[in-house]
Design brief:
Blueprint lengths: L2 E7 L3 H16 L7 E5 L4 E7 L1 E2 H7 L2 H20 L2 E3 L7 E3 L7 E3 L5 E3 L19 H18 L15 H5 L14 H17 L4 H15 L4 H15 L37 H37 L1 H4 L1 H22 L4 H50 L1
Antiparallel strand pairs: 1-3, 2-3, 4-6, 5-8, 6-7
Length: 399
């Protein structure tokens, strides 16, 4: 891994301050961005940490399958930055740093063209429209901002904003519009997905046809995203898919029949009268799952049974037990409701265990209060189910 420092120069204080703010904001929240080492506002420079190589260098020096695999952390870095609220609008191989194939870490650089609600743009993006990486909505917003700039400056509007066009820098530096169209864009994750598709196209152009077709599949899927939810889901799928080394999968033999006159034996089929049986491993797993469900149901039923029994004893003998026992009986009711609520939580096994243990402790306190009034027999009966449930829960936690 190459570790050094890189100094980036800026044309004005506005662009320096905005990029510095974005870098510091992302770094403080654990974003995959380089660490700022020093800032010189007089020289208009930022010195930052530089790790590894850019993807643009990497894809020309590494084997194709390794380049494809490293696209997964590259996409993940852009996605992580976006989930922190910063949307990189200049997605390109030169703007990703890769540490090494072993670490599978990537960093995003160059936030001169980025969108963030916390740091809204105050000038038109310093970008020309690139239909390959710019979503049509983003392209239209960039064009609208430049048209407004040329109109406000009394300049001739270029024929298009894709080809080269000149901008008087002094007028741009002093131009502070009341609004920037790019700030009003919605579905920013869809904009990012479109840009990531352009990145895959850029890298795929340097690869062999087999690897290029693999990237084409994901690029088409990313480019088709229209909503934030769809884009987030598709980006995550592309990261998983590109991170799987399908080219280096374990080779398996292929059966080939050399005798063309003898047909291969038919595959054994289950008898119509006998339903197919699962393999022993699957049968054992199924029984294990069934036992686990039955055990959880039993452990849940024991504290409930203890509470019902305790409540019954308390309420039937409330006149003899007095006010403390009566209030204890009332406390058992919300505790039971708490257990039922925890059991209704999908996937909340740990919460269920905690609630059952709490209920067992409540039963112990109730039985302690009940002992002087009704004797050890009734008190023990009310305590027994909860105690068994608590022991079972502890044993399951240990296993």
């Amino acid at each position: 891994m190459k570790l050094g420092a890189f100094t980036k120069s800026f044309e004005d204080e506005y662009n320096l301050s905005r990029e510095l703010a974005l870098l510091n904001d992302l770094a403080q929240r654990g974003g995959p961005v380089p660490k700022v080492l020093a800032t010189d506002h007089r020289a208009l420079t930022i010195e930052m940490e530089h790790r590894g190589q850019s993807l643009a260098e990497w894809m020309h020096e590494r084997p194709d399958h390794e380049v494809v695999q490293m696209l997964a952390p590259a996409l993940a870095a852009f996605d992580r930055v976006a989930r922190l609220g910063v949307f990189h609008l200049d997605v390109a191989a030169r703007n990703v740093l890769l540490e090494s194939s072993g670490s599978r870490q990537a960093q995003v650089i160059d936030f001169s063209a980025a969108l963030c609600a916390r740091f809204p743009l105050q000038k038109p993006l310093w970008l020309r429209v690139n239909p390959r990486v710019h979503h049509p909505a983003l392209a239209s917003a960039i064009e609208a901002d430049w048209q407004a700039f040329f109109t406000a400056m009394g300049l001739t509007i270029p024929a298009n904003f894709v080809d080269h066009f000149d901008i008087p820098w002094d007028r741009y530096a002093s131009h502070w519009p009341s609004g920037v169209a790019v700030n009003g864009l919605n579905h920013q994750h869809a904009l990012l997905a479109f840009g990531l598709a352009g990145l895959l196209d850029e890298v795929g152009a340097t690869l062999t046809s087999d690897h290029r077709s693999r990237l084409d599949h994901w690029a088409q899927a990313l480019r088709a995203c229209q909503t934030n939810a769809e884009a987030q889901k598709q980006i995550a799928a592309a990261i998983r898919g590109l991170g799987t080394d399908t080219d280096n999968a374990t080779p398996r033999p292929t059966a080939r029949h050399t005798d063309t006159h003898t047909p291969p034996p038919p595959s054994p089929q289950p008898s119509p009268q006998t339903p197919p049986q699962p393999p022993p491993a699957q049968w054992a797993q199924a029984n294990s799952d069934q036992y686990s469900w039955q055990a959880r149901a039993l452990l849940a039923a024991l504290p409930v049974a203890g509470l019902v029994l305790t409540d019954h004893v308390y309420t039937t003998q409330a006149a003899q037990l007095g006010d403390p026992a009566f209030y204890s009986a009332l406390a058992a009711i919300p505790a039971l409701l708490l257990l039922l609520a925890s059991l209704a939580q999908s996937g909340g096994l740990n919460l269920q265990r905690v609630c059952m243990l709490v209920l067992a402790a409540i039963q112990f306190m109730l039985a302690r209060d009940l002992l002087p009034q009704v004797g050890p027999l009734w008190a023990g009966l009310t305590l027994l189910p909860g105690s068994l449930g608590a022991v079972g829960i502890v044993m399951r936690l240990r296993t």
